[in-house]
Amino acid sequence: MSKAKENGSGHKYAADSIQVLEGLEPVRKRPGMYIGSTGPEGLHHCVIEIFDNSRDEAMGGYADEVEVTILPGDIVRVVDNGRGIPVGIHKKTKVSALETVMTTLHAGGKFDGESYKIAGGLHGVGASVVNALSEWTIAEVHQDGDLYRQEYARGVKKANVKKVGKTKSRGTVITFKPDAQIFSELVFDADKLKNHFRQQAYLVKKLRIRLIDARTLPEVPDLKETFWFAALGLDALSHTFYFEGGLLSLVNFYNLHEKAVQKNVFCVEKESGDIQVEIALQYIDDIKVREFSYANNTSTPEGGTHLTGFRTALTRTLNEYGRKNGLIKDNEDNFTGDDVREGITAVVSVKMRDAQFEGQTKAKLGSVEAQGAVAGVFGEAFALYLEENPDDAKAIISKVVLALKARKAAKAAKDSVLRKGALDGMTLPGKLADCQSRSANESELFLVEGESAGGSSKMGRDRRTQAILPLRGKILNVERARLDKMLSSQEIKNLVIALGTAIAETFDISRLRYHKVIIATDADVDGAHIRTLLLTLFFRYFRALLDAGHIYVATPPLYKIWKGKDVRYAYTDVEKERVLKDFGVDNLAIETEADTEEGGTEGGQQNSGVEDESEGEDGKKTKKNPKVSIQRYKGLGEMNADELWETTMNPATRTLRKITIEDAEEADKTFDMLMGSEVAPRKLFIQTHARAATIDA
């Protein structure tokens, strides 16, 4: 064998270079491997990991209440009324089972297949990982009349498990303080937790979940009581979720402000072998598809075998019913999967032993047996539903027929717009001022508002890497527009061709011509509206561009402020105040163009930029300090090319905001509420947030 070699620093790579991390050391060394990140997502993941253990007790029928409290000092407390983590001595580890669960990776009751027949957490790392990443943790178990307790510091036990008293309660209490050495910021988002807990309450019938945000309390209260919310009267600080209807209630919640096509929500809950299947669906008068799938109460945003089984059975059942009842004529095509899913709100949930997920994130279910179980249970129950509810069945089939006709019209429109030449970049829109580079990685596409802004940006850009596409007025609101109508809009047609990705089922992100697509609209109400319309288009038809981080919003300045040759730009009113203060000027002392009958420029210039002159005693004129001038930009078209480059387009000096989707479900609801046809929810939103609006008079 060859001898150990030295690297550039003289260090020998030998047997003693191999480190063996013991206990929970690997977690603290590489926390991202276990919780995804050490940012906000990872922080909240810790709370959810402990909560999910309590939820699994409820899924097994051993608990019906879980309480999560955010306490002063970034402390979290999770309580359930389940069986309590066992405290007896573990045969293999020779220590308490509680200590084993809290300090050993891949240790838990979810591997023997009996303690938890169905569980969301499959890897047994939840409690131990959270313990390792916490400054301190306290585990309390109420079991058989006795109270047991053990404390830990950064994953290391401080003492053995001890019996510390008697109790009339039962269950487990985990209290922990996330470690500031690990997490970049210790700020809990109560809304993020509420959304998760609400979802879980729908998925586990008759489970009461309570979230208490007690951070406003002056100090941590006495926590002797297992469930102390009622005793301390914290109703005002709590949110309770409890649903008896399960997925039926969840579909009603999603469709609260929607116009339903079918009167009765379809719902089935049945076992197929060892797999529990629960499905609920309702069609609404819309074109969007909303499908939500879960496996063992874990969201599977990428779907999987259970969703495939549902889709297959849905298409087959509607085709069979339509032909059997003469709703589909002999010379007409069968419905496709896209046809039958248009306007559907569906939730598919399976609970099974040994669920197999694809990838670390559990985003997609891979268990083959789930497909047949879902297809069998749903197909039989949905066929019966259609027979027993003929009015609903006819309404559903009519909607699907409309979707089929629209699909054919959309295909014809798309084929006429997206011919081969256009996709290859040979017939790009005439309005597009393309860049010279053919490397998408360095190319940028600016979407600007109007010809004036287009002219300035074309002159001010870096022609090698920056392309400009001016948009005329407000584009079509695509929230409720089918593809054929959408592609009849010249502005949208130009944008689709410029991007190069095609659209709908022919979409191919690898053909994207610009890796930065930058929305650059004016800083006024119309500009904000155009920006919202563009984001709606990207969210509904180019979602992959958002997910990949290709969509940005430019932030042009609101003000140009200068004093003599000293020129500065302010992007907010707060920045303007700071610049004026630097110039030694009180903002209130500056007249605005609106206050005077004369002076100013089209862009809203305040005062002039000339120096004051006065005559001294000797008759000579002397110069005073220059006045401060302010120009308020109402639009990009008012900026000179060099100003636009310096403030908005120059990669070295500009500020871009990348558009990301943190919560797709909430984003979907927000777009629907703001851009959909239902007026009531939008009106309520405006009334609720009116006081927070900034009016640019």
UniProtKB/TrEMBL annotation:
- For this protein, the parts annotated as crossing the membrane are none
* Every Toprim domain range: 443-557
Output one GO MF annotation. Answer: DNA binding
Q: Which EC numbers does the record give?
A: 5.6.2.2
Keyword annotations from UniProtKB, A to Z:
ATP-binding, DNA-binding, Isomerase, Magnesium, Metal-binding, Nucleotide-binding, Topoisomerase
- What is the organism field in this record? Candidatus Vogelbacteria bacterium CG10_big_fil_rev_8_21_14_0_10_51_16
Q: Which cofactor does it need?
A: Mg(2+)
Could you identify this protein by its name? DNA topoisomerase (ATP-hydrolyzing)
Q: Which family does it belong to?
A: Belongs to the type II topoisomerase GyrB family.
Q: Which NCBIfam families match?
A: PRK05644.1 (NF004189)
Q: Which InterPro entries match?
A: DNA_gyrase_B_C, HATPase_C_sf, HATPase_dom, Ribosomal_Su5_D2-typ_SF, Ribsml_uS5_D2-typ_fold_subgr, Topo_IIA, Topo_IIA-like_dom_sf, Topo_IIA_B
Q: Record's SUPFAM superfamilies?
A: ATPase domain of HSP90 chaperone/DNA topoisomerase II/histidine kinase (SSF55874), Ribosomal protein S5 domain 2-like (SSF54211), Type II DNA topoisomerase (SSF56719)
Coiled-coil blocks: none
What is catalysed by this protein? ATP-dependent breakage, passage and rejoining of double-stranded DNA
- State the Gene Ontology BP annotations: DNA topological change
Q: Does the keyword Iron-sulfur apply?
A: no
Instruction: Map out region (Disordered) in residue numbers.
Output: 591-629
